[in-house]
Every structure is written in C-alpha cells, then in structure tokens.
Write a structure and sequence with these properties.
heterotrimer; A mainly alpha (334); B alpha+beta (622); C mainly alpha (340); B: 622 residues; alpha+beta; six-stranded mixed β-sheet; four-stranded antiparallel β-sheet; C: mainly alpha; 11 helices
Chain lengths: 334, 622, 340
C-alpha cells in the first residue's frame, strides 16, 4: 500500500511539472498585451520599455524563463536568476503585473471564497442528489422516479449561469421578485463568516441544483446494477430485510464510485470551474480573479492560478486513487 | 496666469445653453436641432462642486468600485480613478478643488513665479505640511525634486513625465544616467532646491504652462528620499507598498489604527489598508493640519473604504441608491437605472449626477493605408456615421453630447473650436449621418456609385471584445458596411487591442473604433498634442492612432505649446482642433460624461478635474 | 460544469474498474432475423420522451439551416439589423416583447427572436463539429494506445493525464485568447496552426475539441484493451491479418456502438461548454450565440428579462433533448444495463 502511495505521489509531482510546462507554452503564445508596454504608459520610448521588460525578466530566452519559474515555484534555490527576477521560492508564483502584489498572496486571498462556495454546494448537492438517486432506484419505473429523473435532467441541461440569473431574478432581495436571498455583490459586503454564508446561500443552491442531478442519476444506475447482482439475490434469499439489503449492500457498493466522482468534481471546481457561478454572483474567488487577470493580460496571475488549479486536480485525483486502492485492493497491483 | 472671465463663465454658460428637459426634447424628428441642443447635462443632474452649508464632520463613507486603482505609488498613478485616492491623500504642488478649472496652489504657497520669458518657474513650498507616520517630518523642496526624478525610473515608469517635463534642463543627461544605473533616481539638473522651501525649475523653452499644469498631477506629490530610496532600488519599485501621505487622509498602514491615531511608534510604514483588487481603507492622517498648512480641503468623513470587485453595475448602483453612506467609484449606472431615476420611477433624482469627464471618444481611421489615406473617403465615413447611435451604445443622452470636434467642454479652446455645434463642416452637421454628403465625398474620391469599390474596400478593424466597446464597434461596423466596405472585425481584449494592434503602427488595422483621449489637465495641449501630432508617433506605443502626420498641424502644435498668454493659447489650440477636423482623421462621437450615484444620506461633491466624487469634500448628512 | 456524467472509467484509476460499464456484444446468432440496428431502433422507440426529443432536434436542425426563411416567414428583421425605433430615444434602453418584435430587442436594438433562431446555428454547428473532432482525436488516440500498448500507450496515456490535470475551462479560455490574433492592416490572419484556425467559430470548435478528446480517448483505450484479447481478434491474427486489417475490420466495428453512445453524451456537454465560453466572452462573438446573448443581458437582466429568458430556454430545451436522446441511445445499446 505504501509503495502504491509513494508511486502515485511521485507521479503527481511529475504531472504538475509537466502541466506547468504545457501551461507555460500556452501562455507564451497568449497574445499578452505586452506587459512592459502596459507599465511604461503612454509615450514611453523603446528604451524604457526594454528596461522594464528586462526587469520583469521577459527578455530572457523562453527556456530560461520557464526553468526560473519552475525553480521559484517548487524549490528554494537561486537558479536561473531567480533572486533578481522576483525572488526565490518555494511557492513563489511571481508578482502581479498590475498591482505588484505577490501572486501567491492573491490566490490565497481568493481561495476562501471559492472554498466556501464549493463546500456549501457539495453539502447541498449531496443532500439533494443522493436521497433522490436512492429513492429513484428503489422505486424504479414509478411516476416519481420518472418525474425526478426528468427534472434533474432539466436542471443539468440548463447552463449554470443562466440558472443563477433566473434564481436572482426570482429571489434576490434587492432586485428579485420575491425578496428572500441576498443579491449580487452581497458577499463583498459581508464581514462575518455567517454573513458570508448567507450571501452564498443562493449560489450554493444554484451550483448544487446544477450538479445534484448527475449524482442522482449516477447513484440510481449504480444501485440498479448492484441490486441485480447475484450476491444481493443471495442475501434476499437468505431472508435479509430489504431495508438492510439496500443500506448495507446496495449503497455501500455504489458509494465508492460516487466518492471518486465527488473528489474529481471538487478538484475541478476548486481549480476554477466555479468561474461561472462566481461571475454571476460577483463572488471574489479564484475563478473571478482569473477572468479579471485575463482581461488585463496579467500573465503571472493567470499562470499562477492555472498551476494552482492543476495542483488541486492532481491532489484530489491522488486522494481519490488512494481511497480507491484502500477500498479495492485489486487496484494496487496494477 | 489669471483666470479670465470667459473661463469662469464657461461652465455656467454651458449648462444654461443646454436644454435640460429630458422628457420632451428627444424626438423632434431628428436633425441638427435636437441632436445638439438636447445633449449635455440637464440641470436636474448637475453635480454639486461645493459642500453644502451644513456639512458636518464625521461619518464613514464607502465607495463601490468595479476594478482597482492602477497604482498606489503616486509616481506611477495614471488613471482618473486613481486620482480619487490621490486627491484626498496627497498634496501636489498645484491642486484641484472640486470646482476648479485651473490648478490652484496646494503644496505651493501661492502661484509660482515665472521669469526669463517662461523658462524659469519658482515655487515656494508651504510651511507646516508634514508626512504621515512613520516619516513625520515637514516636507521640503528636495522631496518634490526626488518625486519627479524617481518617476523616470523604469521601476516606477510614470506615463506622462516624459510627455510634459522633457523640457527641463538636463533631461537628456538624466536619461543617460538611467542607462547606467536603473535603480537609483537620476539627478535632474533643471530642478534646483536653493533652500528647503524653494523649488526652481529651469526649462529649455518657454513651455511653462503645460509644465505647471503637469505639476498638478500626482507626480509632484512629495516623496522622502531617505525613506523611499531602498524601495526604489527594487525592480519594480516597492514604494507602492510603503507610501507616505501628505493629505488630510492616508491609506492605513502599520503605524495607525482605523481612527487615524498613531499606535505603533516602531512601525515600518507598510500599508495594511490596501488589498489589491479587494479593498482600500482610508483613514485620517494624524499629521495633517489643514488650518496651519493652508489646505483648501475640509475633510469631513472620518473613514473612507473603497470596496472593489463589483462587476455588476446594476446591482451595485441599486445597492448605493437604496443604501447608506455609499458612493459609486469607477462605473456608471446602467441605462435602465438611469432611466428609472430620470423618470422618477425609483429613487430621488438628485442621487444621480453627471460631470464632464474632460475626454473624448473617437473612431480612428488609419491615414497611412488605403482606403483611408484619401481624405475624401475619410470625410465620407464621418458624414455617413450615425454618431448619435454610437453615443447611445454607451447609454443615452446623459452620457455626453455628440462630439463635433476634439477639445471637450470646459477645456479652454472648446468654444474657440466651435463649441457644441463645432466647426462649419458639412460632414459633421448631422449627428445622425447624412448619406447625401457621404455620397458626394465618395464620388470626389473616385467612387462613382457613392459606394466603395475595389479591393481596397476589404478593411480590417480591431476593437474591444467586451461591452460597451464591443457594442460601439459592432454599431460602427454596420455603418461602414452601408458605404460598401467589407469589414473584417476582430474583437480582442482591451489591452491587447492597444499594445498589439492599434498602438503599434506597423500592425495597426484600418479602423480602431474604441479609442479616445482624456485630458491630463485642463489645457488643450493635453488633448491634442499626443493624439494628433506627427511628432508624437511612436513605433511601439503610439497614441496617435490615425497616424496623422500633417506638417502644417505639426508645426502649429509645436508652436502653440510655448504660448504663455491664456486667451491666445485657447484661440490657437481651437484653430488647431479645426485644422485637425479638416483632415478628418477620425470620427469623434462623444464628449463623455461621468455619471455618478450616491446614497440618499450622502452630501456628495464631485470634482470637475477627474470627474469623480471628491472624497475630501463629500460628507455624510446626519 | 462538473465532471462528466459518464458511467464507467474514472481518470487516474489504473484499469477499467467501474460499475456497470461493460458493453455486451450483440451476438447475431442469438437473435433471429433482426439486424442489430433494427433492435436498437425498437428499443429506442420505447422511450417516448426520447422520441419527442428526437423530433424536436430534427426540427431544430431544419430551423437552423433554414434560418433566413424562418425569419422571413415570421416577419422579423435580420439578426444584425438594429432598429433605432425600438430603443428609447433618450435613454437608449431596449424595449421588450411587442408586436414589432415578438421577443423584444437587445440593447443595440436587434431583434431577439431573430438572434435566437440564428443562435441555433452556432450551437448546433459547434456541437456537431467539436464533438466530431473530439471523437476523431479520441478514437485515434485511444485505439493506438490500446492496441499497440507498451511505450505508445504509456506516452499517450501520460499525455492525457497531463492534459487532464490542467483545468479545462482555464485552458480553453487561454487557448481561445491565444488563437485570436490577426496582424492588422496587412490582412493576413495568424490564429493557430498557421492560419488554419481562424478566430471566431473555428477557434471555439478547436478549443472545445482539444479539451474534450481525452474523455473519449480514455474510454476507447479501455474498450480496445479488452477487445484485443477476445477470440475473434486472436483468430484474425492467427490467419495472418496485419494491424490495419485488425483495427479496421475487427476492432472498429465493435467499437462503433460505444463510440456513438459516448459521443452522444458529449454533444449536450459541448453545447453547454460553448455557451459558457461565449458567456465569459471568449466564445463566439461576431455571430449571435445563445451564451453571448445571456451574457449581454447580465448587466440589466432584471429589466431586460426577455433577452435573458429566451436564449436560456433555447439552451435548456436543446440540451435536454440531446440528453434524453443520448440516454435512450445508451439504454438501447446496452440492454443488459437495465436502467429503466
């Protein structure tokens, strides 16, 4: 088991390094509004722009910039001129071209909002999706089953940002028809943890509604498959109560893939998939930050956030894999 | 150097001349009449530029912003939005009370003395102006000298020092020094400090007017060298995280608490009140003594918090309008909100005001490439443009009058260039466009049918990929197509549009629809020189987007820079504006207004200089 | 958007250990006299909802193709024509549904109904083209990896892993922005891949395909891995068949069913993906697109409910229809996995 974990962790790190190479290449091609020119202001002569470019380390060859970046992110050493172009690492993602603030600080600053959004949404979508899936599986083919499945399908067929707008239109306390939930921008004004939670209530519900269906459908089909397995029939034949059958055998077996799916979803959301919800509701999270950064061609912030996102994805994949290996020993030996 | 009567009367005349009736004047059948007269700022929405008589001290203001200021470092600050902060926290040599149309001495004791035919300017620094903690000492002339010198460092990179202060003696030498040492501020020989209170500027020619005006910009906010040197040695400079202030307010740092009281004697001066992209906490500056140091600012509010990240202007405006003690920062209310307020459907009318931004917006036509290298084709394009529709893409009438030339209202030279109706040109007469005139010019250009023919009609256009710029570009594209042009429109990110296309002469497309210029200060030179002089065409960061290079205009501009008589200056620049319009290098479509909103309990005062609420004059009414 | 709604392999887990994923081959000898496709169709028809959806989709395609005709019949103006009379003269605000404009106008005065109809083109073109491209890439990669195994498999799989590690939406936004370049006055566009990928619709298709092919690749690889061990492949090899023959004659036909199923699951996701990109401003900008229309409405949606609602409903129904059809197809092709 330990060897498996070590192998996976090492591969995870390698993945991150490779991913950062791909990211670096992409954003090199990215038509960055030349940041040196942006900083130089109007009427700057080429000499000044060249000067600034050198300061920002942009005039060095690409491979050097990349290796320097890797050094600054992953190691504490001063290789490839790390110290003079932004400082040594580890976890040094450079400085924002706009405000000069360290990118790491910007990301850590934005992370709580995204994390809170995701956490709450996860809670609600499990709350909504799991029971729905189970009940639908049990009452297969009933009207209830059919109706719930179509409704859930409808919810995941609508774009999440549109659901958000509709929800705001109906329920926002400032501009909606029925004044219940706080509206856009309320998170920005909230000072206490509970105020923030309240401000996130509608985003939670919207994000959950857009995701729950996937879990409901998944659990339902998973359970139906499991329930028709031989060992379940044996259990029933032996006289085990239906409730017990469902709880102990049905759900247990079906839950593992759900956990996997959950891990991946959370990883993806934290990595920035929450961007749509954050945009609609004006939540100052990571997703929102990258939209702003892209508009300002703020390369270090963009790279930093994407790399950070990759980190989440890789980490959650890792957790899921290890959990899976723990639950299903066959996996470890492949 | 005295205000003339004409200029004092200008704002009043402007507002009286404009018909302020929103409900009726709209559709009298189109044409010139309603186009020009129903524009401008109706009296209902005229911004107060003085505090009310019973304004009280105390209270906490909140400003809602969509984005962030550009730099906290006054030496790097460039945008009007940032000036909202600098006007309240820094004292510059010359300053801007809310109703001023000319700079007023702030850090300087009285108007500067000009001698030697305008080539030597002498300032006297006031007594009693102190830096905020942790520096604490009184400001000297050396601090202003250092502030200007450091602005040349690549790590600070001020955007206008080179444009306006390059006439200082020793400027070229200073740039040479910079080549050798990029982290020490060079020595500008043209700035002399014979004693602590005297600052002498020596110029190579008599461009004293733009120089004095430029010294009203944040670049002249004093910076203590002994404190800032170590930060300026970093690349880029980290002074922006450690700024010290001389105004009634300061951004909170580790020396003071939120009431502006000194708490830590051993502090470093690191700003704690600035979270980039999130919040700016502004508190009172404990070392400010307005009375003793002759500051015109009343500074009513106790604290000011700027909250950033409100990217939905509708909900943010609603929040401000229905809430308490809030002001809008860098975004205007959306047209639907404007309509709600103006028609009285929601909120009180006086919660919304409009201020001229001192800027223009235009569609630049690349004069160096066919088909727009032919002035007749350009005139045809202007004649055909429905400039009112372009203006409407930014919102309705409240967002500014349809432009007929380039110098905006309230800037000297505006009236001289023709005022609202503009020069007498047939291609600008109708703000909704006149196809007959367009046809005439197309025919003059050799297109018999009045429509463009041939391969030159396949043109490229690069514009904003986000509203409202995208809307304007889309609108203009369909207008161009009416003349037979085949437009390949490429929407890109705003910054990319400038740095990769429109501001790079070799890469510039035929049309750049989303450009414009805001004055740097209230002098027509700051509106016309950089955007239209052939001498300012820059190979990598060009702001003369039409690439206009007319020798007569270039010469006139160069000579007009050094005129010292106010009235003559206004006339000359007005003439230049008309000369530029004769060349039809661009389609001017609006002189835009900044539309601001406030909460009901806020006694808001707007500053005419940057078109924003003035934080040092606005108060909370009890 | 969350991780895909797929019912088999999970990225990262070695091997294909998933619940209920196996496809049963349709063994012709067991079923008398009907072809597999007839059977498939019969099963599909049982799902009434899916049938209705299918009809809806066919209609949608027809409307999209015949958009100008539809507009003419409805008497609406073109999608890019702005009607200054529909805008408030003083405030330049848009007006809602009226007799002149059944769905109202947007803030530039353009008819919303028209734009919704034309928007169908963008959604459908992107959906089919991007899915096709992604599937093509995925099948090729998956087949090659699964069939040849060894180093080829390792390299391809690891590459897929790396791509999957990068948040795809961020990747898409970055790529979309990166491929949107022209070189101004000289007229030649660069874009990506030496001008092949022009800005606009092409970029969106390219970007979506690039970030979605990995899903199909994984599945096809898994299927190929298990299929190549089956007897009929052994038999073909034994009788001297070369790689190409085996791949094209033995493997691919058996992969068609799952490929179609997973491609059909991909289509609705691609539509939502394009809508999201357009909403964020990096999708299709020069043509009417449903996502972009919703994005236009965001600033004032409480007043401008009409151009938030109609494009949104269009998206909802289209994606729902695709989802229902996709579900039914999956059921019809996997009789063992009794879902209903």
């Amino acid at each position: 088991m330990l060897r498996y974990i070590v192998r996976r962790v090492l591969w995870g790190i390698a993945l991150l390094v490779l991913a950062s190479a791909v990211i670096f290449v992409i954003f090199y091609v990215f038509p960055s509004a030349d940041p040196a020119k942006l900083r130089a202001g109007r009427q700057a002569n080429p000499a000044v722009i060249a000067s600034i470019r050198e300061q920002l380390g942009l005039s060095d060859p690409l491979w050097e910039q990349f290796l320097r970046y890797l050094t600054q992110v992953f190691t504490p050493f001063d290789w490839f001129g790390a110290a003079e172009h932004g400082g040594t690492g580890p976890f040094n993602f450079g400085r924002s071209f706009g405000s000069n603030a360290p990118v790491k600080d910007i990301i850590l600053d934005r992370l709580p909002a995204t994390a809170l959004l995701v956490a709450g949404a996860v809670f609600f979508w499990l709350l909504m999706g799991l029971p729905t899936g189970i009940i639908s599986a049990i009452k297969r083919r009933s009207l209830l089953d059919r109706a719930t499945m179509v409704t859930s399908l409808a919810l995941i067929s609508a774009p999440v940002f549109w659901l958000g707008l509709v929800a705001l239109y109906l329920f926002a306390s400032d501009v909606g028809k029925i004044h219940i939930f706080p509206g856009i921008g309320s998170y920005l004004e909230a000072d206490t943890f509970w105020a923030r939670c309240w401000a996130l209530f509608l985003p939670w519900l919207v994000l959950a509604a857009a995701t729950a269906a996937i879990y409901a459908r998944y659990l339902r089909s998973s359970m139906i498959d499991v329930m028709s397995e031989d060992y379940i029939r044996t259990a029933r034949a032996k006289g085990v109560g239906e409730g017990s059958v469902i709880m102990r055998h049905g759900i247990r077996s079906a839950i593992t893939p759900i956990v996997t799916l959950l891990g991946l979803d959370v990883g993806l959301l934290l990595a920035g998939n929450a961007i749509l919800t954050e945009s609609v509701f004006n939540i100052p999270g990571i997703g929102h930050e990258i939209v702003v950064a892209i508009n300002r061609s703020n390369l270090p912030v963009i790279q930093g956030i994407v790399l950070f996102g990759a980190f989440f994805i890789v980490t959650f994949n890792l957790i899921v894999d290890i959990a899976y290996a723990y639950l299903d020993p066959r996996v470890r030996y492949q | 150097m005295r205000l003339t009567r004409l200029r004092l009367l200008l704002p009043a005349m402007l507002l009286v001349a404009l018909v302020g009736v929103l409900s009726s004047c709209g559709d009298s059948g189109g044409g010139t009449e309603s186009g020009t007269e129903s524009a401008g700022i109706p009296s209902d929405f005229k911004a107060p530029t003085a505090a009310s008589d019973n304004a009280q001290q105390g209270g906490d203001l909140t400003v809602l912003n969509e984005g962030d200021i550009d730099y906290m470092d006054p030496g790097a600050a460039y945008y009007q939005v940032t000036y909202m902060v600098t006007l309240a926290t820094q004292r510059t040599l010359m300053g801007w009370p809310p109703d001023a149309t000319e700079p007023v001495p702030d850090l300087a004791e009285g108007q500067p003395e000009e001698t030697d035919g305008g080539k030597t300017i002498t300032f006297t620094i006031r007594d009693g102006v102190k830096f905020s903690p942790p520096v604490n000492r009184e400001v000297t002339s050396a601090d202003v000298k250092y502030a200007i010198e450091r602005s040349l460092l690549p790590g600070v990179a001020n955007g206008y020092t080179r444009a306006y202060l390059a006439d200082l003696v020793g400027f070229k030498e200073a740039e040479q020094q910079l080549k050798q040492d990029k982290t020490t501020a060079p020595d500008l020989k043209g700035i002399e400090t014979p004693d602590d209170k005297t600052l002498v500027l020596k110029l190579t020619r008599s461009s004293s007017i733009p120089v004095i005006q430029a010294l009203s910009l944040p670049v002249s906010a004093p910076v203590p060298e002994e404190y800032a040197k170590e930060f300026d040695a970093e690349s880029p400079s980290t002074y922006g995280e450690q700024v010290v202030f001389t105004g009634p307010y300061m951004v909170q740092n580790d020396c003071v608490d939120s009431s502006g009281k000194v708490t830590d004697q051993d502090c470093s001066g690191k700003l704690t009140g600035y979270s980039p992209g999130k919040e700016i906490s502004i508190v009172r500056n404990p070392n400010w003594d307005g009375e003793a140091s002759g500051d015109f600012r009343p500074a009513y509010a106790d604290t000011i918090t700027i909250q950033e990240g409100f990217s939905d202007p509708t909900s943010a405006s609603e929040k401000i309008l229905s809430g308490d003690s809030q002001l809008s920062g860098d975004f205007p209310p959306s047209p639907t909100i404007v309509k709600d307020i103006a028609t009285g459907a929601k909120f009180a009318k006086d919660q919304m005001v409009a201020v001229p931004s001192g800027g223009n917006r235009y569609v630049a036509l690349n004069t160096q490439e066919p088909p727009f290298d032919d002035v007749n084709v350009r005139k045809a394009v202007i004649a055909n443009s429905d400039r009112e529709a372009l203006r409407n893409t930014r919102g309705g009438e409240l967002f500014g009058p349809v432009a007929t030339h380039f110098i905006p209202p309230l800037i000297p030279g505006f009236e001289e260039a023709g005022g609202l109706t503009g020069p007498d040109l047939d291609y600008t007469k109708d703000p909704n466009g006149d196809p007959a005139v367009a046809k005439k010019y197309m025919q003059k250009a050799g297109f018999k049918s009045g429509q463009c023919e041939g391969s030159d009609c396949d043109i490229t256009m690069v514009g904003d990929d986000a509203p409202p710029g995208l809307k304007t570009a889309t609108q203009f594209k369909s207008q161009l197509e009416e003349l037979g042009f085949n437009v390949d429109f490429q929407p890109v990110l705003h910054d990319v549009m400038y740095t990769k296309f429109c501001s790079v002469p070799t890469q510039e497309p035929n049309v750049c629809p989303n450009v414009g210029w805001i004055k740097d200060f209230n002098d027509p030179q700051s509106i016309l020189q950089v955007p239209f002089s052939g001498d300012s065409i820059n190979p990598s960061n060009n702001s003369n987007w039409p690439q206009l290079d007319d020798p007569a205009i270039n010469k006139a501009i160069d000579q007009a820079v050094t005129i010292t008589d106010e009235q003559q200056r206004a006339e000359e620049w007005g003439k230049i504006d008309d000369m530029i319009m004769d060349q039809a290098p661009a389609v001017p479509w609006v002189w835009d207004n900044d539309v601001l909103v406030r909460s009901e309990n806020v006694d808001g005062v707007a500053n005419l200089f940057n078109g924003e609420w003035d934080l040092a004059y606005t108060s909370v009414s009890k | 958007m969350s991780a895909r709604d797929f019912t088999e392999e999970f990225p990262g887990s070695p091997g294909a250990v998933g619940a209920g994923a196996e496809i049963t081959e349709i063994d012709p000898s067991k079923i008398a006299a009907r072809s597999p496709w007839e059977l498939f169709w019969r099963r599909f028809r049982e799902d009434k909802l899916a049938l209705v959806s299918l009809v809806f989709l066919v209609l949608l395609v027809i409307i999209a193709i015949a958009a100008p005709l539809v507009i003419d019949i409805a008497g609406a103006p073109g999608p890019n024509e702005d009607d200054p009379n529909a805008l408030d003269p003083t405030f330049a605000t848009a007006t809602g549904p009226s007799s002149a404009h059944i769905f109202g106008v947007d803030d530039l005065g353009r008819d919303v109904f028209s734009r919704v109809v034309y928007g169908a083109r963008v959604s459908l073109i992107v959906a089919f083209a991007a899915t096709f491209l992604a599937t093509l890439l995925g099948v090729v990669a998956g087949l090659v990896a699964g069939y040849f195994r060894g180093w080829t498999d390792t390299i391809i799989s690891r590459f897929v892993d790396v791509l999957l590690a990068i948040p795809y939406l961020m990747l898409a936004i970055g790529l979309a922005a990166a491929c949107t370049t022209t070189s101004g006055a000289s007229g030649s566009s660069s874009g990506c891949l030496g001008g092949l990928i022009k800005p606009g619709l092409t970029v969106v298709i390219f970007v979506i395909a690039i970030t979605s092919w990995t899903y199909i690749a994984r599945i096809v690889r898994g299927q190929t891995l298990s299929l190549r061990e089956k007897e009929f492949v052994e038999a073909a090899r034994a009788s001297g068949a070369g790689h190409t023959r085996i791949i094209f004659r033995e493997l691919l036909p058996n992969l068609t069913a799952p490929i179609i199923v997973y491609a059909s699951i991909l289509v609705p996701q691609v539509i939502l993906y394009e809508a999201a990109l357009s909403y964020l401003g990096v999708g299709v900008v020069d043509q009417p697109s449903w996502g972009q229309m919703i994005s236009d409405a965001t600033g004032d949606f409480t007043t401008y409910w009409w151009f938030m609602l109609f494009p949104g409903l269009a998206l909802l129904f289209t994606v729902l229809a695709f989802n229902l059809v996709g579900d039914a197809m999956q059921d019809a092709l996997n009789p063992r996995a009794k879902k209903t």
